[in-house]
Amino acid sequence: MARAKKTKLSALAICIFSCCHTSAISAEDIEFNTDVLDVKDKQNIDLGQFSKTGYIMPGTYTFKIKINQNEMDEQDINVYASDADKNDSRACFTPEMVKKFGFKADYEKAFTLWHQNQCVDITALRGIEVHPDLGESQLSISVPQAYMEYVSDDWVPASMWDDGVPGVLADYNVNAQTRQNDGEGDQNTISGNGTLGINLGPWRARADWQGNYDSRADDQNLSGQKKWALSRMYLYRALTGIKARLTLGEDYLNSDLIDSFRFAGASVVSDDNMLPPNLRGYAPQVTGVAKTNAKVVISQQGRVIYQTQVAAGPFAIQDLSTAVSGDLDVRVEEQNGVVQTYRVTTANVPYLTRPGSVRFKFFAGKPTSYDHTANGETFGASEFSWGISNGWSLFGGAITSGKYISLTAGIGRDLLALGAVAFDVTRSDAKLDDEHRHGQSYRVSYSKNFDETGSQVTFAGYRFSEKSFMSFNDYLQYRGSDDDYMQSKEMYTVTFSQQFARLGISAYLNYSHQTYWNNPAEDRYSLSLSRYFDVGKWKNLNGSLTAYRNKFDGENDDGMYLSLSVPWGDTGTLSYNAAMDSSASSHNVAWYDRLASGDSYRMSAGGSDDGGSLSGYYDHLGEQAELTGNLDYQHGQYRSAGVTMRGGMTATAHGAALHRANVMGGSRVLVDTGDAAGIPVQGYNGSTRTNRFGKAVIAEVSDYSKNSLSIDINSLPDDAEATSSVVQATLTEGAIGYRKFNVVSGQKAMAILRLADGSFPPFGATVRNALSQEVGIVNDEGETWLSGLKPGVKMNVSWDGKVQCAFRVPENVMEPNRNGTLLLPCRTAVDDI
């Protein structure tokens, strides 16, 4: 019986629209032929909500605004009766809202005002249409593209960027490791880093922290050492009008012309992320080879900026921030106790700027040391790049502090088919205690993709500095160490890749060579060769060879890594690898697989000069954190275990949730599904479910780019319905976005609504819950298929353009009458319900 009634009611909307025709009087008016409706009481019908295209009752609604294909954050919008037709209604867009819609300034002049000049009539521009949809809680605005600022599939103008909501965040990355040595003392280590933050409007307050605890024990002694510190504290915000970022507090000078150093003060820097994606810069990449399961720590001048666990073999870390520049210190801590250290110089492509554009950076403050104390006099620095024409760019910069000054001038040229090149000269002048030094430094850099040969020179550079030249970093170190600093002489840097299409071989070369006037040279070579091939029925086998040399502090670390992998099944891979260096060699067979849940694991067994070994590695992409664990056993030497947990907590006035963390202190979106728990929400990288309070945080989002979040409607709980399943967010850097999905949760049942006088609400009346979500439409004789039923919840019934009665869902909502139908009295004294 209940099934038949539900089918009859679900056809109501089809019946309504099949019975209507457009009036000849007005394109907005719709008339209905009610004679064809199978309704017993044809005098008791209310189709008023369908008689006007897009009509909704006056009131305040929470709408998601969608302009063409671009969505804005959800906000409260008033709906008023139209000035021209009191039987019609219109959404009120305030002048503040319209400024965010992305209209070109010239066209905004055509807008008119209505409702006592409080609302902007954007439809005064020909071709603009507004379509409200209460079911989707969405206002769709169709605008001819000629009226809008530049947009693309993944980028919107600054007027549509979202600063997010006020809130606090705490992101962390914690590593724990224990090692039991045969014949020696045991060792336990816990280390971590993270970011604490507060957001208020466009402002972001951040404090980076890092800590370490190390304990060692043997038969006689137990020792422990622990450290914890706030490594950096600062405020920043976007200056969208000039496409730049303002930073106050502790920072690192991020320059293409001046060596990076730590300082406390202020900076205003052009931000590439505020440009369309095809105009943005790049993030540095750190590569290396881990001989065992290992922890990789990347730091800059004592501040840890990234650490992670990696499996044995070559690794490439590509998710560093684009704000990172200068020299990076890399530390690879192997499970067998061996530590690799080397330095990576981040390189930029030649300094070219698009025609007519000016890029700039300004810095002022005092240099500081890692413990936050001043380490020099007040300085000022600046740089710029100006695109003179399609082929030429002019750039330069300066830094001055007390008795030091340096000036840089350079020029860049786009050579078209031959690539791009840049050349610059820097002159320094430093007055020291016992002498006056002045000298020059020369630099040339080059970049080119050779499509016809499959070659790519990502960066190639050479720099020569005279012995009397002092960079500002040299000047600071001289003052602190009395001339005991490393004086740079020559530096070569090459990043090169080559595709040998006929042979199916890919080659990648990374080379850097640094010499000093007063220290041994440093070198880093890395060459990788890889090839995919088939052998009989085995397809897509992959063989690779990596050779490297790290020369640092006068010592060489040479090695080679050979691997062969064979795909097995849908997700598994069987592999063999061999590692050799100057002191030892090893051979391993490994099995890797990715599970349906998204987790992955790796198991290996092998032998080395020191004996047999076993190891395991497991990565779990959890909803509240990412967990990585590893186990290692080396016969006759040690047993070790390690775990990494990476995640965060975000809290706002709308709610809070634990979550995975992508960029420490970076942007994220708080997703709200009301009181519906366990709703699966998908982001760019993986999915999560809302917690018991209906909240979830998606941290895998990009700054200044459109991010789409969606509900997996195929995995919804049985007691939930999603009337809107996709939202978008374009966030400024570090923002906490807030997006609400229209999800109705609760039981579903057939009910009969009856008024106090024994009559029924009219056919076509709507039922809404406290969140103004439509949960049912009244059929003949009060029959209504209702969703979102929860004990004690109040629901309103509307017809003739207003709320007419209300009822509360009984505590025994799942105990219907004999006919399988709930009997619900609808009272007209709405406030007393």
TrEMBL record:
<keyword id="KW-1029">Fimbrium biogenesis</keyword>
<keyword id="KW-0732">Signal</keyword>
<feature type="domain" description="PapC-like C-terminal">
    <location>
        <begin position="753"/>
        <end position="807"/>
    </location>
</feature>
<keyword id="KW-0998">Cell outer membrane</keyword>
<dbReference type="InterPro" id="IPR018030">
    <property type="entry name" value="Fimbrial_membr_usher_CS"/>
</dbReference>
<feature type="signal peptide">
    <location>
        <begin position="1"/>
        <end position="27"/>
    </location>
</feature>
<dbReference type="GO" id="GO:0009279">
    <property type="term" value="C:cell outer membrane"/>
</dbReference>
<keyword id="KW-1134">Transmembrane beta strand</keyword>
<keyword id="KW-0812">Transmembrane</keyword>
<dbReference type="InterPro" id="IPR043142">
    <property type="entry name" value="PapC-like_C_sf"/>
</dbReference>
<dbReference type="Pfam" id="PF13954">
    <property type="entry name" value="PapC_N"/>
</dbReference>
<comment type="similarity">
    <text>Belongs to the fimbrial export usher family.</text>
</comment>
<feature type="domain" description="PapC N-terminal">
    <location>
        <begin position="31"/>
        <end position="176"/>
    </location>
</feature>
<dbReference type="GO" id="GO:0015473">
    <property type="term" value="F:fimbrial usher porin activity"/>
</dbReference>
<protein>
    <submittedName>
        <fullName>PapC/FimD family outer membrane usher protein</fullName>
    </submittedName>
</protein>
<dbReference type="InterPro" id="IPR042186">
    <property type="entry name" value="FimD_plug_dom"/>
</dbReference>
<dbReference type="InterPro" id="IPR025949">
    <property type="entry name" value="PapC-like_C"/>
</dbReference>
<keyword id="KW-0813">Transport</keyword>
<dbReference type="Pfam" id="PF00577">
    <property type="entry name" value="Usher"/>
</dbReference>
<keyword id="KW-0472">Membrane</keyword>
<dbReference type="InterPro" id="IPR037224">
    <property type="entry name" value="PapC_N_sf"/>
</dbReference>
<dbReference type="GO" id="GO:0009297">
    <property type="term" value="P:pilus assembly"/>
</dbReference>
<dbReference type="Pfam" id="PF13953">
    <property type="entry name" value="PapC_C"/>
</dbReference>
<dbReference type="InterPro" id="IPR000015">
    <property type="entry name" value="Fimb_usher"/>
</dbReference>
<dbReference type="InterPro" id="IPR025885">
    <property type="entry name" value="PapC_N"/>
</dbReference>
